[in-house]
Structures are given as C-alpha cells and as structure tokens.
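Dig into this one:

. . .
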Amino acid sequence: MFTAFVMSSSTATGSETEHRPSAVSTLLPRYLALAFAILIVYASLHPFFGWRDTGLSPFAYLAAAWPRYWTVFDLATNAIAYLPLGFLLTLTLRRMPGRWTAALVTLLLGAALSFCLESLQSWLPSRVASNLDLACNAFGTGIGAVLAIRHGDRFFSRLVLMQQRLLAPVPHVEFGLVLVTLWLLTQLSPETILFGAGDLRHLLEITPAVPYAASAFFAIETGIIVCDTVAIGLITRTLLAGRGSSYVVLIAFFALALAIRTLAAAVLVDPLHAFAWLTPGASLGLMVGGAMLSLMLLLPASLRIALAGPQSLFAGRTGGLAARALPELQRADPADCQPLALPRPPLSDGARKKALNQAWNRLSQKAQPTIRRTSA
C-alpha cells in the first residue's frame, strides 16, 4: 500500500506549487471510513485462524435468547466501536438527495457489516456470535449518522481547513495520511519485530522453504527497522506542508510509534517486558535509519519520493525473511530469544480480559509506593 501511494505521489514532482484541495474535493472522510471498516473487520475476526464447522447455521444467533453473561461495558463498547464508522460514512455520502438519506444508507451498511462479521464469528472458536452485539453495532452506527447530520458540516469544514494548513497539496494526500495512521496502529502488536508489518505467513499457512540461522536474524532485524524508518519517514515528510518543522514532527511521530509499542507490550504482555523491543538489532536499526533519514530529507522532493518506494519494498521482503527465521531462532537457542518475538497462541476474549486485568493490577501495585510517598 505504501508503495502504491509513493508511486502515485511521484507523478506530482514539484507539487508543492499546485493548488490546495478545496472543501468539496477532499477525500479524507471516505478514506477514514474505509480504514475504520478495515479495523472493525480485523478486530472482529482476529486471529483469523482456527475456523471450524459447528454443524449449526451461522445465522442461528439471530434467534438466540438474551445472553446469560453481559455487562454494560460490553454493550457500550459495541455501540461506540461503530459510532465513528456511522459518522464518517454519513459524511462520505452527504451529497445524496434528501437530508436523512445518507444517514439511512449508513445505518443499513453498518448493520450489514455487523451482520456479516457476527455470522463469520460462528466459525471461530475464540469468538461468540451475538444478536445483542449486532443490535448495539447498528445502534452505534445510527448514533454516528445522526451526529454527522447535526454537526457534520461544521466538522467537515474544520477538517478541510486543518488539511490545508498541515498537509501538502499532493495527489492522494488523504490516502497517505490514513496509511501512516494505520502503520502506527500496527505497533499495537507486541509479537512482531519493531516497525515490522505485513507478515501473512501464518494467515496463509506458508511453510518456510529455507531454514535461516539465528546469527542472520540480527542483520534481518536491523535491515527491517532501517528500511521502515527511512520509508515511513520519507512518506510522512511528503505529506507535510511545512519544511522548517519537519524534523520536529518526524521525531515526535517516531516517538509516538515507540510509545505505542511500549504501552502495548506493558498492557498486553507484562510491564516487565515493556521494552523488550529494544534489542541490539533495534537499537542499531533506529540509529542507522535515523541518520539515513536525516540526510535524505535534504534531497529534493521528487528524489525523496523516488527513494521511499524501494525502501518500503525491501522492508517488506526482509520482513518475510525475518518471519521465516523466527522458528529457527526458537530451535537454535530459546534462552536468547526475546519473549515477544516468538509466535503465541491466540487468546480467547475471556483470557484476554483476564490478562488485561492482571496487567492493570500489577501496574497499580507498582504505583502504590510512589503514590504514598507523594501524598506523604
């Protein structure tokens, strides 16, 4: 996806002199709605394997009785999860005739998406299809649609002004912004290599064709982080309108990515492993990648765009090599393996909630002495 955006942006050499997008031409709500729908699909069907046929109809949940176990938090979460989708879809369809036509179509689309995902969950052992979840999802979509009808124009105009002020007038700048945001969200997975994304080996059930030694993993990890740092940095710089503050913005951007990775590891795994991503390969990759990015930012815009594509392609290729090296690492010397780098079995919803509660309790216990000293 990053490569496609880079190649489309490469046609805009010298685009910093083009006209800025107008209020009627921005596609940001459409891209955000698409990205949010993808996130909902991912969250609803994760971990994407373990499918089995229970012998029941996938639509049997529609006629099920009121669930025995439910909480207000679960109901609110299911409604809030679809609220942004309803808001963004209504903004996308705002040109349809009639004031409430876009809201009605959005409600039908959101309910249809929830219906399909709940039906698919019937074949996943770690998920439970629920008619109550379907109702809450549709309700949240409707609330978001109503909010878009009431306040969408004001929000849309401010969104356009912010885009004109912060983003460069390059083609498909909205799409690039959404891709960068999605890349940030990939850092929520503590099992992957730092800045690594796109490993479909387990999803596609691809077996390693060539074994890789543990000694090669250091170079592969370093190469992934270097290439991803350069590629993401160059793409993000292409999206920015200003030049003087680009270094500050990029430093803040990568600091945010590392903070997301650290917080995800502390909450989802264990606070003691919050910085498990800081391996020797990661340290070297961040230093080399940061130095290379600082030099490449001095290049002309057209050359920066041309260099971002090969970097992202090479990062994706080395990411596949690293994914195949992980099992070999596990066999070579388990004591040297980072606890977050090895594949883990997927957690069920109950186990995930239990793990989050345990992590929160550990964090609270560690914070109590500090709070007592402060209060004293």
